[in-house]
């Protein structure tokens, strides 16, 4: 067996572990992931990129769920990525080369994301890949990108406890979304929390953060329920919520399960005025799908809303609607994805090269005047300085800011700067 075959087999083992061990693989890395990473570090120098920089175009890859339960959310990310590319090409491209997009459908399945990532890197020979949504999809792709020393730009807020030399995380780290959401609930006097989420990496790991925060801040978790991705039966969960004594709900459901949850929530007589739900994965696009009457006055935690009042965002919203339709809203994940293309462009131009190692070396301090506000790359952990916003869903189907951080927050994916989170960081370091 050749070194490359052993490396690919190691990556495949890690992918399986990442997909199956969802209760733990969000907590740092699994044993299989660590072993694959060690192999990758040794073998990376033996792998050579097949990216072709000789012509006047350069390939980049998009991998998004255009089918399956996550398509409701991920189509808009694909749309915004294409818009960014067209804008960049209209202004001369990157290092004088036009960007050529190769699109792949992740089909809402982590294993498919890994397969499509390998196709983009090894067969299509792209210079960088943009996409993924669920943490399971990212975890499945991570060993692929490390094995081939390729770049993934991941646009979603996520549970943290991870940093990869081959991934740039343009969405929020937990201290830029989860912690501000809990701070807001605490400031508003809510003390008893009910947790509901989809049964995969992000919700389970995010809720470990919630429980650690609650224990250290005089709050109580009175219920914690998970449901399979795509689930539509919330009768039992909502009934437990109603009689739990909770005064607020932390929602980490993903995809179209949110539609069923909020319909059942409303049917049970629960109301935002008395038992508000703060959601980590409901943006403007999902509001229309769920039905605004089912989520009006509910809370969200993000780093971007369509309603942000700045000149860059107004232009962004105008251009997006002109391209995709006046009824199409903009949202945090798609804005983060859009921003990630420009950040990659900035890194490449700073490096004066498409070479992965040179791009990584040039990443620290790269900035972009994004629709959400100015963002900056932290070269140490490959996350982004971002401003946090708490919003309330309005009858106009948009989300309006009710609280914002003083400015961009330095990313802290392992929550090392929070005393109440010491046990979380310790768990990662011991794995």
If you had to describe this structure to a student in words, what would you say it looks like?
The chain is an alpha/beta fold and 431 residues long. Helix content is 43%, strand content 18%. The protein has helices at residues 3-20, 31-43, 71-90, 110-123, 135-148, 178-187, 201-216, 235-242, 257-267, 284-290, 292-295, 311-324, 332-351, 356-362, 422-430; strands at 57-64, 98-105, 129-131, 152-154, 167-169, 192-198, 220-227, 248-252, 277-279, 299-302, 367-370, 373-378, 383-385, 389-393, 399-404. It has a 7-stranded mixed beta sheet with strand order 7-6-8-9-10-14-15, sandwiched between helices. The chain has a 5-stranded parallel beta sheet with strand order 2-1-3-4-5, with helices on both faces. The longest helix has 20 residues, at 71-90. The relative contact order is 0.13.
How many β strands by DSSP?
Answer: 15
**Strands in their spatial order, largest beta sheet:** 7-6-8-9-10-14-15
Mean pLDDT comes to 90
In terms of per-residue confidence, which ranges show pLDDT below 50 for 5 or more consecutive residues? 1-28, 30-34, 40-46
Largest sheet: 7 strands, mixed
Which structural class fits the helix and strand makeup? Answer: alpha/beta
Calculate Rg over CA atoms.
Answer: 21 Å
Q: Which percent bin holds the helix content?
A: 40-55%
Q: Approximately how much beta-strand content do the residues carry?
A: 15-25%
């Amino acid at each position: 067996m050749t070194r490359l075959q052993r490396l690919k087999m190691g990556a495949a083992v890690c992918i399986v572990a990442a997909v199956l061990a969802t209760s733990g693989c969000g907590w740092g890395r699994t044993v299989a992931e660590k072993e694959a990473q060690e192999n990758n570090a040794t073998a990376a120098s033996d792998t050579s990129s097949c990216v072709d920089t000789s012509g006047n175009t350069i390939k980049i890859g998009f991998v998004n769920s255009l089918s399956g339960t996550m398509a409701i959310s991920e189509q808009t990310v694909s749309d915004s990525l294409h818009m960014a590319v067209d804008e960049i090409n209209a202004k001369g491209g990157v290092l004088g080369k036009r960007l050529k997009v190769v699109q792949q459908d992740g089909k809402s399945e982590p294993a498919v994301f890994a397969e499509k990532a390998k196709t983009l890197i090894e067969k299509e020979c792209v210079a960088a890949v943009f996409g993924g949504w669920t943490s399971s999809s990212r975890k499945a792709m991570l060993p692929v990108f490390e094995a081939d020393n390729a770049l993934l730009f991941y646009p979603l807020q996520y549970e943290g406890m991870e940093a990869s030399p081959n991934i740039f995380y343009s969405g929020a780290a937990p201290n830029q979304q989860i912690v501000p959401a809990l701070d807001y609930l605490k400031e508003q006097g809510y003390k008893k929390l009910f947790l509901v989420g989809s049964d995969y990496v992000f919700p389970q790991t995010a809720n470990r953060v919630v429980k650690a925060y609650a224990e250290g801040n005089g709050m109580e978790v009175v219920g914690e329920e998970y449901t399979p991705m795509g689930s539509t039966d919330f009768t039992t969960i909502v009934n437990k919520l109603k009689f739990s004594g909770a005064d607020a709900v932390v929602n980490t459901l993903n995809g179209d399960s949110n539609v069923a949850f909020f319909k059942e929530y409303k049917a049970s007589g629960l109301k935002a005025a008395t038992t508000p739900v703060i959601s980590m994965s409901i943006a403007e696009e999902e509001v229309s799908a769920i039905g605004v009457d089912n989520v009006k006055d509910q809370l969200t935690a993000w780093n971007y809303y369509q309603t942000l009042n700045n000149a860059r965002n107004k232009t962004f919203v105008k251009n997006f609607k002109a391209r995709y339709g006046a009824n199409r809203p903009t949202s945090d994940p798609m804005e983060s994805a859009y921003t990630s293309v420009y950040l990659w462009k900035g890194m490449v131009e700073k490096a004066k090269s498409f070479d992965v190692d040179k791009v990584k070396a040039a990443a620290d301090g790269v900035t972009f005047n994004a629709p959400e506000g100015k963002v900056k790359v932290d070269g140490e952990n490959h996350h982004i300085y971002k401003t946090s916003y708490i919003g309330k869903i309005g009858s106009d189907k948009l989300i309006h800011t009710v609280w914002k951080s003083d400015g961009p927050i330095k990313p802290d994916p392992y929550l090392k700067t929070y005393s109440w989170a010491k046990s979380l960081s310790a768990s990662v370091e011991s794995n």
